[in-house]
Structure formats: structure tokens, C-alpha cells
């Protein structure tokens, strides 16, 4: 017995528990009790809870014991519980709602509908559900609804454990569950719910409270049942998930007693009323983006106040920060002093010693300047409170004689302007148009700083125009600092009448920009005004698209959100390519990661629409990503909170923590030393302003990309979003590009815009047409009248035709734009990659292309060299120049080559043009074919070197993709080191089809992102043609029965529930197809998952369209050449690779070569379920995929063949696949990875005893023979 006790800790550690639970329930004493025995005192229980890491859960009873005692509720709130539930006693309490309000977070009770409770809670490592006797809904129904709501909230039950608390059970629920008694009913509830992993039951007679039960639910997955009595100790449970199935694999439980020598100091002081309380204010802007940023700060305050959550537990150990929030309208800080008025009305009762916020210098001025502080003092409020701003950058606010006790957690505009200057110097821009709000203190100061700093570098600021009726109201003020060289408007003008710019003002701004020929534009206006301007840019197409570059000085999600929090798609489209110069952030540190993890379980989009700030543990989040905080200055709100907390913590006495002067001095001390905060290291200068560095960020319209730096906005643009991506950093004043990133300018192009329109023809050499026309009209007026009538009729016809053509062109452009939005993770090759290295180093040597121009027959004798019949060669240097231009034009570069002052050549139109007369001649390019590929690799005795891949890529994946310039690729996954795995969806012109040799593949493999770029509209137009011409989007559309895809860049799978009306038919369809050639009595289905991988689906869709478009009737070809489904069985270690990368021959074609070296698919599941191909895991579970495949035309398979046979020798076209039997194929072998898509994944086990090798072509079992069809989803897609 002694040996067993010694081994117990080792066994618990060996269980590799993924979830540790520390559980309490039903204590017979309030939290404010001071006794240590039986954990009755809250301070002792809190200490026992924190003895080891784990999720802290309370099962109920606290509300009943505390009643309406506010102190008791606050003590409970400070004990660090991750989730808590209610029991029958709580429900019967008459002060339940009051208790919940005082706690500040919602309890979980799935069977009790109330605005004070939640049906489930994401508690940061698990999902918590709870049912209790006395609720309003039956247990079975309540659990089903709670799981559905959790799933709809984006929780993945395959990776997130589910814990269900059961507190008592009524006879109604016992009967409903079909139980013979309470214990039996709870066991049935546990076993019938496939997604629940652990059930903790209290108050259930018949369940042992000293051990645990183990069972298997209907899906064949393990579930544990614990009968708990946690009313006198903290009970611990360790749930292990170490067998790779996604279901729990082990369970350990124990008790953690309380000790009189071990208590929580903070809770102890709270109980005795000895906690130091500091009043703090927050000034938060209205709107969804402002709410999300504010709530990020509130969550940080909660983490600091919670002394038991592992975050800042050693900061302010005896101090509580009492936070009061006041909302203000950021658009009305200047005229309406909205921030100051919010302080005066909403912060008056607290009269805080420090305030976090507001953002923006105009708003800061309204509360932090001497004159405004005196106004606050006149209402009996403090005039010396510390103000910490997260986003004020104007240099004017650096004057501490005017703005005392002000700290700013971002760098000033002097630093920002250096980043703007670096961009201008990189791209050679020398002209800048500034648009600013003369009313706004920040905007005016920023305009001045940027124009002065860039002007010193020789960059001219354009224009001098006030677009409102007058700008005199603001410009006449003594403290106005804005420049006249600019485009500006004045909201203080008596005729303005609105807090936002109107469409008329926006149009006036755009008209002036057009008149100035402004191409590089800096907007120094508030986000809500920026939204209006970009809406008009998109709607009017003025200053829109390629040839422009925009900067904004105030980035925020509010630029794209309407007042109701919904997206303005016009603003988003208008802002594509927008650049910002913003404080550099690094959230990889421990502080940021801990806060992100804590925020994960408290995000709630519904909170964003609320006007009041309720302490219920829920915080606004627009995009469902805990790492993004409002898309603007949210990280610096959190930095402000941390800065204040560290400053307060450094003060030794409670009296100093009530003294604003001491607090401000402490901020300087901790800032000079530097410390880790949310956005990285914070260092402050002597003015208590951040000393940081800048990053260049770029708003790009595309699918949610893979990099962690980007911000996905909540802007619904069909299937795309606006991503705020870091593209460069400013280091020492120099532009340092972010690895693997490119700037996308307006118009979706990487082509750098010029800062002016190229000069037009100067008019020299033009004929005086007025004189000639006068003579003609004077001499031939009668004739001209007739000609004029005829010309009018002709012209009218031409105009009508032109209108129709323009409408057609616009329709095509709209369709192309929709198509561009629908594609996911596509890149175009801009630098070749081939065996051994780059194309320049390793391509077969070839003679240079020779270029010619067409000469008139009469002048041929004047030339020494003529290529028949009439081509004159350029010299070698000019030929090389034209060849280089052709290569650049293929990836979006300019096709125009200036040959001389008089002649230009266009290598795409193949014309040479006299720029003065407009006369053109044809061009000819003569390129000899490259040598045979065998010379590329040398002799058989000298094979090429292996591909230059990173060493940690698996051996069966070590294949490089041959990249031809102009080819369009689709990513399947991307690594942090710049390597990505993908496939070719559109081959480049002239791409070879020969075997590239060892370690290389022409269809799918690894490549370097730096050799690719985002495809231009013209390049995607070629892909659009492959997909059926105009439109093309429909060809990429996913099946209509798919669920909404939350992240198109990663694979998602959706469990089909045979009991759910939503998925019952789909589940049955899959299982019936699987069982067509199987004996149902010998197979057990564990799960059926639908696989949704947008990148793989689009690769398959392109291949399908290309294959079917070869035939006269593509629809008929689709019915003939497409199979849904074929089957593919595989070992469990290959499953994740197939889900992410598809069917790659390197890891899917190992088991058979009888019909060729490709990927094998079977018509019959009886073949693919054979353990030889579909190896079971340690638990005997096998995996098979139901596969959509475009099999095309087939030929008889040949052992070890690398490709199918030739179908059309004249055009060098191969068959699409090989088969076992040409007349009635049951085995299909594909050779292009995009030919197949893994649509469903079935996990199963079987009792069949297999011997030998599987047989192909077996007949279907009755009664299923009549059910077989090549396409089982036809008509329901």
C-alpha cells in the first residue's frame, strides 16, 4: 500500500492531462467567513484553489450563502474562478440577480433562461455547461441547445473539451432520459451527448463521490462521470487527451484540503476591509471600434485586480483599482468638448486620480489642458488628475506647461513623419497633397509637422484650398498651427451644421485633388470622416484605383463601420491599398500572450452594440480574434493600463497612490527604466511620451491571410475581407521591408504609382485645323451640310454602340472584381524556380531571342540585313531590352519600351509606334527552342542535387514546385520562414510538361513566397477564362450545403449529427454510399465529418473546369468525367496532411503501383477499407475519405508508369487518369494533385477478418445495388 501511494504522483504526471479542473460546490458558509477548517473561509479556499494550475470552477451555492451582501459577492469575484454555475438553492434565492450584478460576471445555467445567466461559457481551455434542478428547461434539451450555441459561436469541439455540471435532477428529467433512478439518468445524459467529455454531478444519490465512472457515448468516444462532494475541500480532476482521437483518454481525481497556515492575502484583506482602493476613470469613444478598444483596457484592469489568474498577480497585491467608464463622441471633442463633458457628468462621483484616455489630441486638449482642467475644477472636480492617452500624437501636446500630468503611450508626429519620409524616399515621390480638418488640433499639428519635415527633404506640398465655405473660424485662432499649403475644411464654420463631412465637402476635396493632379495623398482627418471620403472615392471613381497612394494618420476600424456597427463596403473598397505609419507592435511576449488567452473566453460581439458598460465578464469583440483589439489603438489602451498599474505598484504607501503628482512622477520612473507591456517594450522620455519605432501597414483586400501580424476587419465583402498587414518597418529612418510581404496599392496592383500624371504631348507639329475647316466650310458648305447630317446619324449610331460596349466592359470588370474577391490564397510567380536554383542559374542554356520590326517593301533595299519577307533586326542591346520588358510585362510590369525620343515599342501589342505621328509598325520575336531537358540534368552518373528545402520538412513532403514566371499558384499552407506549399492552378505560357527530375514536381510542392506576388486583375482574368469566361465565380462556388467558412486559409471540418435535422440527410447519404459494398453488421461508424478547405476546393474546381472545358458540352462532360464519390483509405498519420494539402503522391501513393505511380481511389469502399491501405490506429479506428474526383478520360494503367498514356499525340495531350478496367473501372489513379478533393472523412471500426489482397470490382450488397450513381450529390450541390 505504501508503494502505491508513492507512485500516485508519478502516475498522475504520466497521464499527460490536457485539462486540470479545481472544483468547489455547495459550501455552507459565505465567502466572507474567516474560519479555515473545511475550507469555510474564502481566503483559505482561494489559496487551495491556486495550489496548482487548472481551471477553477464553482458548481453553485455561493449566491444562496451571500444573499445581497455586496462584500461577499466581491470577495467571490476576486477568488479567480474561471467559470461558475448555480444550483437549486441559488435559484430559490430572492437576491440572485443582485448577487450576480455585484459579482460582475454571468454564471452558467443551460436550463435557466435569464438575462443574468449564460447557457455556456468558454473558460479558456474548456467549454462549461451546467444544468440544475429547478430550471425552466429539461436537461436533454438544454444541453443540446447549449452545445449548438457554443458551436455557432465558433467553438471547435474536436479541440476544446466540454465539461457538464449536473446539480441534482428531478423526476421529470429522470423520466425524460429514460432512467430507472437519478444516477442512471445522469449516466444516460452523459453517454448520449457526443461532445461532452467530463460530467461532474453533485446531489445525485447513487453516484459514488470517491471515484469516477467511465463509459462510451453513442459515437464510440470515451466520457468520464464524477460524482462530487466538494463542499468541504477543493476537488481536483485531471483529464487526459493523449491518444490522438480527440476524446479523453485518462482521468485522475483527488482532494485539496485547506490549511490555517495557507490563505490568500488579498482575499483576507478584502474580508477585513483592509484593501487599498484607487479610483480610476476611463474615457472611451463611442462606436463598435471604440468600444472594442475600451473593453480591451477594461479586461486588462480586470486581470490586474484578479490576484489569482496568473497575470500580474504580484502587481498591487493589496490594492484594488475601481474603474469608472465614461463615453464620449470623438467627433465632437473640439466644438462640443464631449470628452470633458463626459468627465464632468459620468466621472464626477468617482473623481478619479488618473484617467486612461481619451485618444486624439483634440480630445486630450479638452480634458488635459490648463484651461479645461480649470473648467473641471469649477465643478468641484480634481484639476490635477493624471491623463494617459493611447493615441494622442500631436507635438503641440508635448508642452507640459500647457498640458500638465499628461502621459502618452504612442510616439509623436515627429517620429511618425520620419516613417512617411522613408516611404517617399523609397519610391522617389516629390509631391504630396495633404487633406486635414482645420478644426482638429491633432490634424492641424500633424499637417504642419509633415509638411515641414518633408519640405526640408525637398518634397512639395500641393494646393491652398479651403473646401468649406470658410476656414477663418479655426485659422484665426492664436493657437492654430495648420499650414495653408493643403486642402482643408473647417467644422467650426457657422455654416457647417454637422459633426461629419458631407458628401458635398468630400466631393469638393476630390475635385481639388483632381485639379492638382494629386496622386500621393495624406489624410489627416478623423476615422468617421475618412469613411465618408472613401465612400465617395469608390462611388464617384475620382482619385480611385491604380495610379494613387493614400496615407491616413488615424487608422481605426471606424473608417469602415457605420453607426450601427455594420460594415460600409463602399468605404472598404475605396480604401484598398491605404497605407498607415503606426507604432510598431510585438505581441509575442508573455504579457500579451497571457492577456490574449484570458480574453479568449470573454469575447462577445453582442456587447459591442450596448451603450452601457456592465461588469459581467463579457467584452466587445468585432472579429472573433482575441489578438486584435479594435484595429486601431487598442494595444496602446492596454499599454496605458499596464503603465498606470506599474506606476501605482512602485509607490510604497496608500497615500501616495491617491496623489496624482506622485503617480505622474512614478510613471516617469517606470517609463525611463522600460518594461514589457502588451504591444512590446514601453520606454518613455522625459515628457512621459513613448520612444518607439514605426511600422508601415497596408490595407489589402483579400482572404484572411496567414501572417499573424494582420488585422481581419469585420467588413463583409462577399468572400473577402480587408487585412491590415505590416509590409515594412522603419529602422534608423530607413525602410526595411517585411519578409515575404508586398505593398498593394489602390487598384489591387503592386505597381508603384507616380506622383504626377506623365506629361502629355506639347502640341508641336500639329496642323491648324481651324484654318483648314474654315476654308472647307466656306467653299463646300452645301456638301458639308449633307455630310454633316450623315455624320450625325453615323455618330449617333457609334455612340450607342460605344455605350453598349462600355456597359459590356463595365459588366466584365464587375464580374472580374467579384471573381478576384472569391479566390483564396492565390499567388503569381514573378521569379522562376527550377531544379538546382533559380531559372537564371539552372535553366537550360538557350540562344537569346531576336527582335525585328516590320519595314515597308519599298525601303527593304536600304537595309543590309533582312529576315524574309520584310523584317529588320534590332541590335543585340535593343533586343535584350525588349526581351526584359516582355518578362516584366508578364507579371504586371509596363510593356512600353522607349526606343528613342521618337519611337516607343509595346511588347504585348507587338507594335513600334512613332510617338509624334502615331504611325505603328508590327514587331516580331524569334526565340529558338531550348535544348532538350536531358542536358539540364547532365548524365545519369550526375543526378541533380536534392531540393533546397528546410531540414524540418517531413521526408515524404520534400518536393519542390517548379515555378514558371506567370503561373498562378494556390497556397495550402505557409511556414514562418517564407516557404509555402501549394499547387499550380494556371500554368504559365510555354510551361513544359516533362518530368522535372528528382525532388521536383510541376503540379504541387514547396516554393518560396518571395518568388511570388499577389495576382493582378489581368492575370486573374486568364484564370477566369479557364473557369468559363465571364463570371467565373460560380465555378469556384462551394456546395450549397456547406457551413459558413470562418477562416478560408485553413481546413475546417464539421461533424455530422445523425439526430440533427440540419445534418441528418447528409449523414445518411454519406453512410449509405460508404456501405454500398460493405456488410453493415460488421462495421461501426464513429464519426462523419465534412471537410471544408477553400484552397483545396478552388484548386479542384479549376482543374475540373479546365478538364471539362475541353469538350464541346462542358455540362455533359462534368456528368461523365466527375465522380462523387470515390474512396481513399489511409493511415492516421497521413490524415492531417490530406486535410491541409490534399492528395499528394509523395504521401498518398506509397501502397500501389500496379496501375501507375499516382494516387489511388476506389469506386467501392470494400476495397479502400482493407487494412493494407487503411491501417487502423491503436484503438482499431480506421479513416476513409469520400472523395470528389475529376477523372476525365482514362486509359489502362501500366505498372510503375509516371503519367497516363498519350491521348492526342499531335497536341501532346495525355489521358487524365489510368484505371484497372477501361470498360468498367473500379480503380482510378490520378496524377495531378488537384484532381481530387477530400469532401468527407469517416472514422470507423470493423470486425471483418481480412486475408490476402483486396479485390476490385466487387458487386454491391443488396439492397444497395440500385443506389449506385457516379455522382451521388448531383442535384443537391
TrEMBL record:
Domain PARP catalytic per the UniProt entry, residue ranges: 1043-1265
Signal peptide from the UniProt entry: 1-17
Species assigned in the record: Pelagomonas calceolata
Domain WWE: 837-925
GO cellular component terms attached to this protein's record: cytoplasm; membrane; nucleus
Cross-referenced Pfam families: ANF_receptor, PARP, WWE
KW Mitochondrion (keyword) present: no
Keyword Lyase: no
Subcellular location: Membrane; Nucleus
Alphabetized GO MF terms: NAD+ poly-ADP-ribosyltransferase activity; NAD+-protein mono-ADP-ribosyltransferase activity; transcription corepressor activity
Gene3D superfamilies per the UniProt record, alphabetical: 3.30.720.50, 3.40.50.2300, 3.90.228.10
The name this protein goes by in its record: Poly [ADP-ribose] polymerase
Coiled coil ranges: 802-829
Main enzyme class: transferase
GO biological process: negative regulation of gene expression; protein poly-ADP-ribosylation
EC number: 2.4.2.-
InterPro entries assigned: ANF_lig-bd_rcpt, Mono-ARTD/PARP, Peripla_BP_I, Poly(ADP-ribose)pol_cat_dom, WWE_dom, WWE_dom_sf
Domain of life of the organism encoding this protein: Eukaryota
Transmembrane residue ranges: 769-794
Keyword tags: Coiled coil, Glycosyltransferase, Membrane, NAD, Nucleus, Signal, Transferase, Transmembrane, Transmembrane helix
Start and end residues of each stretch annotated as Disordered: 923-949
Amino acid at each position: 500500500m505504501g508503494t502505491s501511494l508513492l507512485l500516485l504522483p508519478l502516475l498522475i504526471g504520466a497521464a499527460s492531462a490536457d485539462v486540470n479542473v479545481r472544483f468547489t460546490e455547495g459550501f455552507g458558509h459565505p465567502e466572507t467567513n474567516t474560519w479555515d477548517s473545511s475550507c469555510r473561509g474564502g481566503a483559505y479556499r482561494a489559496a487551495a484553489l491556486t495550489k496548482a494550475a487548472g481551471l477553477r470552477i464553482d458548481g453553485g451555492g455561493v449566491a444562496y450563502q451571500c444573499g445581497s451582501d455586496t462584500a461577499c459577492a466581491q470577495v467571490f469575484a476576486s477568488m479567480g474562478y474561471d467559470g461558475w454555475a448555480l444550483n437549486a438553492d441559488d435559484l430559490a434565492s430572492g437576491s440572485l440577480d443582485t448577487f450576480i450584478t455585484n459579482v460582475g460576471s454571468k454564471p452558467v445555467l443551460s436550463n435557466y433562461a435569464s438575462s443574468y445567466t449564460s447557457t455556456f461559457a468558454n473558460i479558456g481551455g474548456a467549454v462549461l455547461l451546467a444544468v440544475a434542478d429547478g430550471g425552466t428547461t429539461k436537461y436533454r434539451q438544454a444541453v443540446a441547445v447549449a452545445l449548438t450555441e457554443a458551436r455557432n459561436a465558433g467553438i471547435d469541439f474536436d479541440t476544446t473539451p466540454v465539461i457538464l455540471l449536473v446539480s441534482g435532477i428531478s423526476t421529470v428529467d429522470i423520466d425524460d432520459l429514460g432512467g430507472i433512478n437519478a444516477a442512471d439518468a445522469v449516466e444516460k445524459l452523459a453517454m448520449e451527448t457526443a461532445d461532452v467529455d467530463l460530467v461532474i454531478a453533485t446531489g445525485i444519490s447513487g453516484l459514488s463521490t470517491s471515484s469516477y465512472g467511465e463509459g462510451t457515448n453513442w459515437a464510440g468516444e470515451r466520457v468520464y462521470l464524477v460524482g462530487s462532494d466538494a463542499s468541504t475541500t477543493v476537488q481536483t480532476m485531471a483529464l487526459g487527451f493523449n491518444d490522438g482521437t480527440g476524446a479523453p483518454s485518462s482521468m485522475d481525481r483527488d482532494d485539496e484540503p485547506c490549511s490555517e497556515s495557507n490563505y490568500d492575502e488579498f482575499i483576507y484583506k478584502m474580508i477585513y476591509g483592509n484593501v487599498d482602493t484607487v479610483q480610476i476613470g476611463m474615457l472611451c469613444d463611442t462606436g463598435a471600434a471604440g468600444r472594442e478598444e475600451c473593453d480591451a483596457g477594461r479586461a486588462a484592469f480586470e486581470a490586474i485586480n484578479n490576484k489569482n489568474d496568473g497575470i500580474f498577480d504580484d502587481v498591487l497585491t493589496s490594492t484594488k483599482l475601481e474603474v469608472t467608464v465614461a463615453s464620449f463622441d470623438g467627433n465632437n471633442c473640439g466644438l462640443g468638448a464631449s470628452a470633458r463633458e463626459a468627465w464632468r457628468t459620468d466621472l464626477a462621483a468617482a473623481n478619479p486620480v488618473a484617467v486612461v484616455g481619451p485618444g486624439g489630441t483634440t480630445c486630450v486638449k479638452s480634458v488635459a489642458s490648463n484651461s479645461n482642467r480649470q473648467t473641471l475644477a469649477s465643478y468641484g472636480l480634481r484639476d490635477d488628475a493624471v491623463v494617459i492617452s493611447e493615441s494622442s500624437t500631436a507635438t503641440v501636446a508635448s508642452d507640459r506647461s500647457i498640458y500638465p500630468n499628461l502621459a502618452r503611450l504612442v510616439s509623436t508626429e515627429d517620429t511618425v513623419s520620419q516613417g512617411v519620409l522613408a516611404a517617399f524616399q523609397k519610391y522617389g515621390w516629390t509631391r504630396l497633397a495633404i487633406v486635414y480638418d482645420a478644426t482638429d488640433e491633432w490634424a492641424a499639428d500633424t499637417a504642419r509637422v509633415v509638411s515641414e519635415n518633408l519640405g526640408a527633404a525637398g518634397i512639395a506640398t500641393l494646393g491652398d484650398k479651403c473646401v468649406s465655405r470658410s476656414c477663418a473660424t479655426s485659422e484665426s485662432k492664436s493657437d492654430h498651427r495648420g499650414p495653408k499649403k493643403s486642402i482643408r475644411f473647417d467644422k467650426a464654420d457657422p455654416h457647417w451644421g454637422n459633426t461629419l463631412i458631407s458628401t458635398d465637402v468630400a466631393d469638393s476635396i476630390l475635385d481639388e485633388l483632381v485639379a492638382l493632379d494629386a496622386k500621393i495623398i495624406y489624410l489627416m482627418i478623423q476615422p468617421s470622416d475618412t469613411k465618408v471620403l472613401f465612400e465617395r472615392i469608390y462611388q464617384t471613381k475620382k482619385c480611385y484605383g491604380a495610379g494613387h497612394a493614400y496615407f491616413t494618420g488615424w487608422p481605426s476600424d471606424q473608417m469602415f463601420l457605420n453607426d450601427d456597427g455594420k460594415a460600409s463596403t463602399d468605404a472598404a473598397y475605396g480604401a484598398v491599398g491605404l497605407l498607415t505609419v503606426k507604432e510598431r507592435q510585438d505581441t509575442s511576449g508573455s504579457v500579451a500572450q497571457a492577456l490574449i488567452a484570458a480574453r479568449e473566453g470573454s469575447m462577445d460581439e453582442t456587447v459591442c452594440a450596448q451603450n452601457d458598460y456592465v461588469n459581467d465578464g463579457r467584452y466587445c469583440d468585432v472579429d472573433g480574434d482575441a489578438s486584435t483589439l479594435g484595429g486601431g489603438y487598442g494595444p496602446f489602451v492596454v499599454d496605458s493600463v499596464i503603465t498606470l498599474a506599474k506606476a501605482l505598484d512602485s509607490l510604497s504607501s496608500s497615500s501616495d497612490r491617491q496623489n496624482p503628482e506622485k503617480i505622474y512622477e512614478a510613471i516617469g520612473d517606470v517609463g525611463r527604466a522600460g518594461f514589457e507591456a502588451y504591444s512590446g517594450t514601453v520606454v518613455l522620455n522625459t515628457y512621459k511620451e513613448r520612444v518607439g519605432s514605426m511600422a508601415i501597414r497596408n490595407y489589402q483586400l483579400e482572404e484572411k491571410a496567414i501572417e499573424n501580424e494582420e488585422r481581419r476587419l469585420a467588413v463583409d465583402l462577399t468572400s473577402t475581407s480587408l487585412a491590415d498587414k505590416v509590409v515594412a518597418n522603419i529602422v534608423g529612418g530607413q525602410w526595411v521591408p517585411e519578409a515575404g510581404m508586398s505593398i498593394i496599392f489602390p487598384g489591387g496592383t503592386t505597381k508603384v504609382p507616380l506622383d504626377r500624371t506623365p506629361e502629355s504631348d506639347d502640341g508641336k507639329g500639329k496642323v491648324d485645323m481651324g484654318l483648314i475647316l474654315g476654308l472647307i466650310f466656306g467653299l463646300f458648305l452645301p456638301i458639308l451640310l449633307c455630310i454633316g447630317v450623315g455624320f450625325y446619324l453615323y455618330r449617333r449610331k457609334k455612340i450607342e454602340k460605344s455605350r453598349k460596349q462600355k456597359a459590356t466592359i463595365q459588366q466584365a470588370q464587375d464580374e472580374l472584381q467579384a471573381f478576384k474577391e472569391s479566390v483564396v490564397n492565390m499567388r503569381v510567380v514573378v521569379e522562376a524556380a527550377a531544379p538546382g536554383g533559380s531559372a537564371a542559374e539552372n535553366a537550360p542554356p538557350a540562344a537569346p531571342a531576336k527582335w525585328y520590326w516590320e519595314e515597308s517593301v519599298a525601303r527593304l533595299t536600304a537595309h543590309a540585313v533582312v529576315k524574309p519577307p520584310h523584317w529588320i533586326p534590332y541590335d543585340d542591346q535593343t533586343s535584350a531590352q525588349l526581351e526584359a520588358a516582355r518578362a516584366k510585362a508578364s507579371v504586371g510590369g509596363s510593356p512600353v519600351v522607349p526606343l528613342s525620343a521618337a519611337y516607343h515599342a509595346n511588347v504585348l501589342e507587338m507594335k513600334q509606334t512613332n510617338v509624334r505621328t502615331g504611325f505603328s509598325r508590327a514587331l516580331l520575336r524569334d526565340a529558338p527552342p531550348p535544348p532538350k531537358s536531358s542536358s539540364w540534368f547532365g548524365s545519369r552518373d550526375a543526378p541533380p542535387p536534392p531540393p533546397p528545402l528546410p531540414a524540418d520538412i517531413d521526408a515524404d513532403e520534400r518536393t519542390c514546385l517548379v515555378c514558371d514566371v506567370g503561373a498562378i499558384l494556390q497556397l495550402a499552407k505557409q511556414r514562418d520562414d517564407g516557404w509555402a506549399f501549394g499547387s499550380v492552378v494556371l500554368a504559365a505560357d510555354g510551361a513544359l510538361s516533362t518530368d522535372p527530375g528528382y525532388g521536383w514536381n510541376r503540379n504541387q510542392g514547396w516554393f518560396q513566397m518571395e518568388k511570388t506576388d499577389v495576382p493582378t486583375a489581368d492575370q486573374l482574368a486568364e484564370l477566369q477564362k479557364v473557369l468559363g469566361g465571364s463570371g467565373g465565380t460560380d465555378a469556384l462556388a462551394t456546395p450549397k450545403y456547406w457551413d459558413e467558412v470562418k477562416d478560408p486559409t485553413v481546413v475546417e471540418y464539421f461533424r455530422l449529427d445523425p439526430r440533427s435535422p440540419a445534418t441528418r440527410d447528409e449523414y445518411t447519404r454519406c453512410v449509405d454510399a460508404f456501405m454500398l459494398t460493405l456488410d453493415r453488421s460488421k462495421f461501426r461508424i464513429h464519426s462523419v465529418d465534412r471537410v471544408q478547405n477553400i484552397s483545396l476546393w478552388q484548386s479542384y474546381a479549376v482543374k475540373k473546369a479546365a478538364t471539362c472545358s475541353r469538350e464541346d458540352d462542358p455540362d455533359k462532360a462534368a456528368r461523365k468525367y466527375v465522380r462523387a464519390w470515390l474512396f481513399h483509405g489511409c493511415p492516421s498519420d497521413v490524415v492531417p496532411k490530406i486535410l491541409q494539402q490534399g492528395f499528394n503522391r509523395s504521401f498518398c501513393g506509397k501502397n500501389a503501383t500496379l496501375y501507375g505511380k499516382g494516387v489511388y481511389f476506389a469506386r467501392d469502399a470494400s476495397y479502400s477499407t482493407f487494412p493494407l491501405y487503411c491501417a487502423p490506429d491503436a484503438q482499431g479506428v480506421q479513416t476513409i475519405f469520400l472523395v470528389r474526383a475529376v477523372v476525365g478520360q482514362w486509359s489502362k494503367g501500366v505498372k510503375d508508369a509516371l503519367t497516363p498514356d498519350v491521348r492526342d499525340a499531335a497536341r501532346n495531350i495525355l489521358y487524365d487518369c489510368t484505371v484497372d478496367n477501361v470498360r468498367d473501372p473500379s480503380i482510378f489513379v490520378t496524377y495531378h494533385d488537384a484532381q481530387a478533393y477530400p469532401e468527407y472523412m469517416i472514422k470507423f471500426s470493423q470486425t471483418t477478418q481480412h486475408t490476402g489482397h483486396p479485390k476490385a470490382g466487387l458487386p454491391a450488397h443488396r439492397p444497395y445495388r440500385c443506389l449506385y450513381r457516379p455522382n451521388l450529390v448531383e442535384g443537391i450541390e
